[in-house]
Amino acid sequence: MDLGRKAISFAGDTVNAFGDLGGQTLKLQRYMGGTAEDASRLAHAFTMTGIDSDTAAKSLGILSKHLTANDAAAKSLGTAYRDAHGKLLPMGQILPSIAQQFSTMPNGPEKTALAMRLFGRAGVSMLPFLSKGAKGIKELQEQSDALGTTLSGDDLDAVKENTKAKRTWGEAVKGLQVSLGRELYPALTAVTKFLSGSVVPVIRTVVTWIKEHKDAVGLVVGVIGAAIAAFKVWSITMAIFNAIAAANPVGLIVI
């Protein structure tokens, strides 16, 4: 029984792991372009250097903005990031080149400032990845293949289809709820109007009467409280007598 539950739990975790990695890879691919394999390998390299997918994606988005604008931050790279036709190189090629430059820099304010200039406020978080250099990043990407965390285009298509199916199901359930709500709304409106027009005035009348007859209400409450207290005392007393009767060798009966 326990083995079966563990097997079911493992199967669920397996599906979730595939879906989570697929989602992270798709997000990263939107920012960096390239193939599914390139994006998932890079996702593995980010994970192994302690960078979550959201931070990585936002950082690459900021870097892409600098590169596209050809601004001062991009020019400070000191490395080529466009091909002979002036088109941006794939991010999978640009990042190792940038990382190689960072790997030769000593830790300190200059290195930190450059990272923040290129990747925004999350640049500090990117430093463990960047400090790996081109060789270190390549080794992590190869490790992704060896560990089985590299995803293919078909894998990402499967994740997309599953996401689409879940969204469609969610909208179908929402549509059913909306349809039922549409039919129930008039009835709920009628009930609300009835409560407002009939029940609320009665309650107000009762409250007003209680305010005007506080002494009588207090007396009634006191009598009820005393009756409840007396009943509790009587119940306790009877319980004691019955216990004595049960232990009485002559068979005294207390009712």
The coarse overall form would be elongated
Give the low-confidence spans: 251-255
Gyration radius (Cα, Å) is 36 Å
How would a textbook summarize the main sheet? none
Order of helices and strands: HHHHHHHHHH
> What percent of the residues sit in helical stretches (DSSP H or I)?
over 70%
Mean pLDDT: 83
Beta strand %:
under 5%
How many helices does DSSP assign?
10
Return the structural class: mainly alpha
Number of strand elements: 0
Alpha-carbon distance between the two ends: 53 Å
Question: How would you portray this structure in words?
Answer:
The protein is an all-alpha fold and 255 residues long. Helices cover 81% and strands 0% of the residues. It is built from 10 helices and no strands. The protein is elongated, with a radius of gyration of 36 Å. The model is unreliable at 251-255 (pLDDT under 50).
Structural descriptors:
single chain; 255 residues; 10 helices; mainly alpha; disordered C terminus; 0% strand; 81% helix
Summarize the structure.
The chain has 255 residues and is mostly helical. 81% of the residues lie in helices and 0% in strands.
Q: How are the SSEs placed, and which strands pair?
A:
Elements lengths: L1 H31 L3 H13 L4 H17 L2 H4 L15 H13 L5 H11 L3 H8 L2 H15 L5 H60 L1 H34 L8
Helix pairs in contact: 1-2, 1-3, 1-9, 2-8, 5-8, 6-7
